[in-house]
Amino acid sequence: MPRHSASLRRPHRRRPGRRPGGFTVLELMVSLALLSLLAGIGAPLWRSTVDRWAVRSVRDRALAALHRTRVEARRWGGAYLEVDGEAGSFRLHRLTGDSLVWEDRAPDEHRVRVLTPRGASRTTLSFDPLGLGIVSSRTLLFRRGAAEARLVVSSRGRATRR
Length: 162
Prior knowledge:
The protein is built from three helices and eight strands. It has 162 residues and is of the alpha+beta class. The strands form two sheets. A four-stranded antiparallel β-sheet has the order 3-2-1-5.
């Protein structure tokens, strides 16, 4: 029998004053409890931040859709933007022929509710051939969770973020 196999059978000796490597079950449980406590505190803050980002993103996409509608109204001799909170979309239509030109499903993608202050979920913003608004002032309300943003559209078609 070779000599080196006998040396493998000897029990391993610890050096005096040294612990074996690794963690105890108690240390692992305490660190896991601390991590879960931090996650419990941070999760609501993270969720509110994500909600705020989603609401602002949809509001900005609505503003872009509004600007695009004004530009296309000058090109086609009139256009309107249909804001449908139930379906979760912004739709750009020509006034002539009433054809759908473009659609953005941002509210549906981000799970953001779009409302008017009176509680209606559908509204139309029309523009004449000069790109000026044909409707009275409107306020669109974007909401997800506790996050909320507004887009105020003047009677001339200019929008302000709030």
